[in-house]
């Protein structure tokens, strides 16, 4: 026992009267740790550096307790304390080197990056490991839409089909870089629902889709479902739900109750377009079950790269009437999704993400 730090030698087992204080201290430490990680770190650190910093502090505390104990040389203390701190500094430098801008808030770390050369150089908005929007840097190509939002993708096809009816009213849940507003014409209205102010700031400052669009832009900050619940019917020609490309999807936007809200806001003959490209989850069968429950039609649109044949995006389109989904712009590029009874009908009371995991 002589070689142990004072904290171990004075453990509560040797003094039961201190048990209450001991467990209260542990609980207080957990609460303070949660506040540091959940509140302080997002406000003070530009990236996820708190683990390495916490390890460095922990090792420093241990070294203070080991001061004077045998086997704790000064050189060893310096190495043990400095290693985690050095890792944190290197991580900060690496993150700064590959990001033009890095913003951290409650929802995570948002980065602005660039890649490619010459006319193919692109600017990206990245959340975690997911690219949420891209735009060519070259001024001659900045109006081009790429990736998930190119003209062959499901969302763009839905907008193009509805544009033939005249000026369109389009809603987009999830702004990203704002690529979809590039399809806006004079007389159109695009109403954007975005929960993160940092995304709105980045789209306005670092991308030009919003500035270049000929459509009228309405920006709504907050949770899209809550906002739509409180609004009267907006009679959207197209309602785009683009919030499921990440690994932690907002399930409350993918339930039967959410579908009812979307349908209430659609104009007669309107289309609900849901972007379901996801590396971890297979979402079309989930939405097929919801569509069947409400008796609405649904098709899937795969957009494949014409050179590689690799799918670059996956969308599902829903409509109350048959005509919108039978439009040549959609019908020629779509297929049907088989029902999946085993997945059930997702509601606010039941949603089983494990059943939708992509296992291949």
Give a description of the structure:
With 360 residues, the protein is of the alpha/beta class. The protein folds into 2 domains: 6-98; 147-356, 3-Layer(aba) Sandwich (Rossmann fold), CATH 3.40.50.150. Helices cover 36% and strands 22% of the residues. The strands form 2 sheets. The protein has an 8-stranded mixed beta sheet, sandwiched between helices. Strand 8, helix 9 (256-264) and strand 9 (266-275) form a beta-alpha-beta unit. The N and C termini lie far apart (53 Å). The relative contact order is 0.09. The mean pLDDT is 86.
Present the secondary structure layout.
Blueprint: H1 6-9, H2 19-44, H3 50-66, H4 74-98, E1 101-105, E2 108-115, E3 122-127, E4 130-136, H5 154-163, E5 169-173, E6 189-194, H6 197-206, H7 209-212, E7 216-221, H8 224-230, E8 236-241, H9 256-264, E9 266-275, H10 284-294, E10 297-304, E11 311-319, H11 323-326, H12 328-331, E12 334-335
Parallel strand pairs: 5-6, 5-8, 6-7, 8-9
Antiparallel strand pairs: 1-2, 2-3, 3-4, 9-11, 10-11, 10-12
Helix pairs in contact: 3-4
Describe the structure using short key phrases.
alpha/beta, 2 domains, eight-stranded mixed beta sheet
Derived from helix and strand composition plus strand pairing, the structural class reads: alpha/beta
What order do the SSEs take from the amino end to the carboxyl end, as H and E?
HHHHEEEEHEEHHEHEHEHEEHHE
Low-confidence stretches: none
What is the CATH topology assignment of the largest domain?
Answer: Rossmann fold
Q: Return Rg in Å.
A: 26 Å
Main β-sheet, spatial strand arrangement: 7-6-5-8-9-11-10-12
Give the N-to-C terminal Cα separation.
53 Å
Instruction: Determine and state the CATH class of the largest domain.
Output: Alpha Beta
Quick check: average pLDDT? 86
Instruction: Assign the CATH superfamily of the largest domain.
Output: Vaccinia Virus protein VP39
Strand content: 15-25%
The largest sheet is: 8 strands, mixed
Q: Helix tally?
A: 12
Instruction: Name the helicity range.
Output: 25-40%
CATH architecture of the largest domain: 3-Layer(aba) Sandwich
């Amino acid at each position: 026992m002589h070689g142990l730090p004072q904290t171990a030698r004075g453990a509560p087992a040797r003094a039961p009267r201190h048990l209450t204080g001991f467990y209260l201290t542990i609980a207080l430490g957990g609460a303070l740790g949660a506040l540091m990680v959940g509140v302080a770190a997002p406000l003070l650190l530009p990236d996820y550096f708190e683990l390495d910093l916490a390890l460095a502090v922990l090792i420093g505390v241990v070294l203070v307790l080991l001061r004077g104990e045998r086997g704790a040389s000064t050189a060893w203390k310096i190495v043990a304390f400095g290693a985690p701190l050095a890792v944190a500094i290197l991580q900060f430098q690496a993150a700064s080197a590959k990001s033009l801008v890095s913003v951290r808030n409650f929802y995570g770390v948002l980065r602005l990056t660039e890649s490619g050369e010459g006319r193919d150089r692109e600017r990206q908005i990245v959340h975690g490991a997911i690219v949420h929007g891209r735009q060519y840097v070259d001024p001659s190509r900045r109006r081009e839409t790429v990736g998930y939002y190119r003209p062959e993708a499901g969302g763009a096809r839905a907008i193009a089909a509805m544009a033939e009816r005249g000026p369109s009213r389009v809603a987009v849940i999830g702004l990203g870089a704002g690529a979809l507003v590039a399809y806006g014409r004079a007389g159109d209205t695009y109403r954007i629902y975005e929960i993160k102010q940092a995304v709105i700031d980045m789209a306005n400052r670092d991308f030009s889709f919003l500035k270049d669009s000929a459509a009228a832009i309405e920006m709504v900050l907050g949770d899209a479902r809550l906002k739509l619940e409180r609004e009267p019917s907006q009679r959207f020609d197209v309602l785009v739900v683009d919030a499921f490309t990440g690994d932690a999807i907002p399930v409350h936007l993918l339930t039967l109750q959410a579908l009812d809200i979307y349908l209430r806001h659609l104009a007669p003959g309107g289309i609900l377009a849901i972007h379901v490209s996801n590396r971890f989850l297979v979402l079309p069968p989930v939405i097929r079950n919801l569509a069947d429950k409400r008796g609405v039609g649904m098709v899937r649109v795969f957009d494949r790269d014409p050179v590689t044949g690799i799918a670059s995006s996956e969308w599902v389109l829903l409509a109350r009437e048959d005509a919108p989904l039978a439009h040549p712009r959609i019908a020629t590029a779509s297929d049907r999704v088989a029902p999946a009874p085993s997945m059930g009908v997702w509601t606010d009371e039941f949603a089983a993400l494990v059943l939708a995991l992509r296992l291949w």
